[in-house]
Fold each of these.
Amino acid sequence: MSRRQNFTTKAVPLNRRWQTPWRRRGSISKSGADRAAPPRAAWAFLAPSLAGVLLFVLFPFADTVRRSFFDPMGGSFVGLANYQSVLANSAFRLAAKNTARFIAVCLPLLLVLSLALALMVRAAKGGGRLFRTTYLVPMAVPVASIALLWQALFAQNGIANSLLSAMGSRPVDFMGTGAAFWVLIFTYLWKNSGYDMILWMAGLDGIPQSLYEAARVDGASNFQCFCHITLPGLLPTLFMTAVLSLLNTFKVFREAYLVAGSYPQTDIYLLQHLFNNWFADLDLGRLSAAAVLVAAVLLTVILLFQRVLNRGDEL
């Protein structure tokens, strides 16, 4: 007897043969329409957040763009005069250079350090709860307390110089020389590494374990699994983490301002210092123009980074 089986098919009436597909299509299109149109309850929950974004973000930014084309004193239209004044200002060029240098150094260091911490915590026994809590402590410390801590560590008679003197070295003016830049970098890494570590761990949890099991069956090493499974699987997390870390670089001003004041050492004179000084002088025209320029640069960088990652996904 051959392997072919004699299958018997039931006779289906003609009306059922034609009606069933149409019924299924109708039900699918209806469910798709339900998914495409969010219910009113969803808009009701989103309405307060959308209203807050419009009221406190979009409308103020639109007003900032408008002010950048007007004279703040007379209210007359000046065109691009405020932008020309900003680009020709030596303080703006210094602050922009220091800010770009700070971002170029801090962002790669933070991404690599936080990813390494996430891998260490994930590999630790018991889920690494103690390490996870330890790395998140800096996020809960108030900014004023951080400023007092840095003053105690890096002042002329602080703890760091006391240790250097005990070892026979000369004291270092950490906040009055080029060392202030590296103190600021250390502050940023110390405060934000725990937050980025949590983001990386969320991305690691989203990678299916079956991929690692299949790779180990094929004889792949841990390094090969990391390069061919972990890193490609973390590309979406990389974009989100990099963007949030980039935005957080503009929040380090609080620590620098509390430690060094409005006019710190030139290596840590950032755009935030310049904006704060122009705001104190009520120079709203140049302040608005500089804010629009910075926002345009940030938006361009984020879009380019997203495009590069999308090309990586296609490859």
Amino acid sequence: MTRYYYRPWKDESLVSGLHFLRCRLIREGLPGVEHADALLRGLGVDPETLPTPQKVPKSYKRGELQRAILEALRNGPLTGLEITKRVSGDLPYKAAYKRTYIALNRMKKAGTVKHEGRLWLAP
């Protein structure tokens, strides 16, 4: 016979889950924010002090960013900033810069691109 034991939730886990739920409710304009706020207050957390970051829209599907980077590098070596400007699309600069560098480093690890000094090259 298998016995299941009750494991109590930690307060930080509850707060984290409620914070995620509250952000989603606010971003999507769904009802129930006041309930999440009441539960957070019950745990001793002021919901107004929690940040509600804006969700950054996805502008690339799987593999599209890597293809766009390789297309940009086809004409010659570029700096990371130049690549970001060419492939950013409608993303805010900071998000585009971060995503571009994550993709570049992943591609470098796979051997798809090379990094020499400040320049990125397609082999």
Amino acid sequence: MSQEIKTIKLEMFAGLASVNCYLVRTGNEFVLIDTGTSKTRSKLEKNLQEAGCKPENLNLILITHGDSDHIGNCAYLQDKYGAKIAMHQKDSGMAEHGDMLWNRKSNIISRIIMPFMGLNKSERFTPDFFVVDGYNLTEYGFDARIIHIPGHSSGSIGILTKEGDLFCGDLFSNTKKPAINSIMPDEKAANDSIEKLRKFNINNVYPGHGNPFLWNLFT
């Protein structure tokens, strides 16, 4: 069954920055990738409703990594929609402690700027299950697999569909041009992740920030 991808761009800081969530539709069922910050909740929910996404047809919420601008609405959606939430176990402490700096390599941006901007904390929640490298998502109506791509965080994952669409979280961004995300606490792990991705058949990249882009524009 064909999959339709809806980009939900959620503005932060009075339009100075934004974060992407992606709603994937297969028939009458949905999978949501990332959830934005709690301050963007009303816009996220409006987009879900307009797409026809309801508690009874939201099969799964996938979290690419544990940053607060990606998990900020998980607790709310878990309660209201009853959908299962999945992420990599290495980032689960960020969710369970509500702290994106939990057990994480840090730099000046993460140590100082993120707390100043109020991005280090989020509502706590417990993931329903963990995914690992190679995990197949077809049981949730989503013809895709998980690729573990650490670098931005130790538990960062990509979701690669059968059609070659890669949801990469914050490994890449495309605010001006396709590039490795500027916030990369573990650059060696990130470079290893990129080399790993070169082995796959990727057509389009859907980043956590900025516009989707063709994989060959980066490679």
